[in-house]
Design a protein that fits this description.
Layout lengths: L7 E7 L9 E9 L5 E9 L7 H6 L8 E7 L2 H12 L14 E8 L2 E5 L4 H18 L6 E10 L2 E10 L4 E4 L4 E2 L1 H11 L18 E5 L6 E2 L8 H18 L1
Antiparallel strand pairs: 1-2, 1-5, 2-3, 3-4, 5-6, 7-8, 7-11, 8-9, 9-10, 11-12
């Protein structure tokens, strides 16, 4: 099925039976008008939180009210991004549940008919929908763009530093080195950066004086980037590759 047009596109997602405070669902509706503008309506809801204490919710990094609704317009280029995704997608003949019973389906109103479809690569579309939601958070002033900082200290008196600004609303990535990074490259960079666990017990409030490589992944704390002594070869190479990439932007 080839899709090259839509009046309304609706993403519906439910995490399935995972425990609170993580379980949630959302409806993300995108509609186009005759002037070529794209409007978005997001309804995000967390559920089953009455089964746990307020302390447990906060300890997991959430607030006591994470539900969110917003209506507004997307920058026009998002229409082309969405249509390109639709044109290149393959679709399942029969919808199915994802891992842990999660559900992701798309409703499309086009050419005077309403269809319920599910992409063959569900994960790719879940990530794409999440990027649109993150764009909505920025447009609705719920969140700022993502800022990530990296510092490389070959010695105590030498320092190379780079700061990244990831804007999902405008799909651009800028650095304080006056560099603009193509969005697909930035997506891969984010995947590598957040492929590691940044544990609270390893966090630092300030950049240490000791030589090393340090990253602030956007939570306000610094973490040392270095291969774990107990990690295998592949894991160590992954860390070293990330450090090498970040250093290239810091120069």
């Amino acid at each position: 099925m080839q899709i090259d047009f839509f009046n309304t596109l609706t993403f519906q997602y439910n995490t399935g039976p995972i425990p609170p405070p993580f379980c949630h669902q959302y409806t993300l509706e995108i509609s186009s008008d005759e002037t070529g503008n794209y409007h978005v309506d997001l309804d995000l809801e967390y559920f089953d939180r009455d089964e746990i204490s307020e302390e447990e919710i906060i300890d997991e990094g959430y607030s006591l009210d994470d539900n969110y609704q917003w209506k507004g317009s997307l920058p026009k280029f998002w229409g082309e991004e969405i249509l390109n995704m639709l044109k290149s997608a393959n679709w399942k003949k029969k919808p199915s549940l994802g891992p842990h019973g999660s559900e992701f389906v798309i409703k499309i109103d086009h050419h005077d008919k309403l269809e319920v479809i599910q992409p063959a690569d569900t994960r790719l579309w879940e990530v794409f929908a999440q990027e649109i939601i993150q764009a909505v958070f920025e447009l609705g002033k719920k969140e700022s763009p993502l800022y990530i900082s990296f510092v490389s200290k070959p010695s105590s008196d030498q320092i190379n530093q780079v700061e990244f600004e990831f804007s999902f609303a405008h799909r651009h990535i800028k650095t304080n080195k006056q560099k603009t990074i193509p969005w697909p490259v930035g997506q891969k960079l984010l995947k590598y950066i957040f492929g590691f666990d940044y544990l609270p017990e390893n966090s630092l409030e300030n950049i240490p004086d000791d030589p090393g490589n340090y990253i602030n992944p956007g939570d306000g704390f610094w973490y040392k980037l270095a291969p774990n002594k107990n990690a295998g070869t592949a894991a160590s190479e992954k860390v070293e590759k990330l450090i090498e990439t970040l250093i290239s932007y810091a120069r």
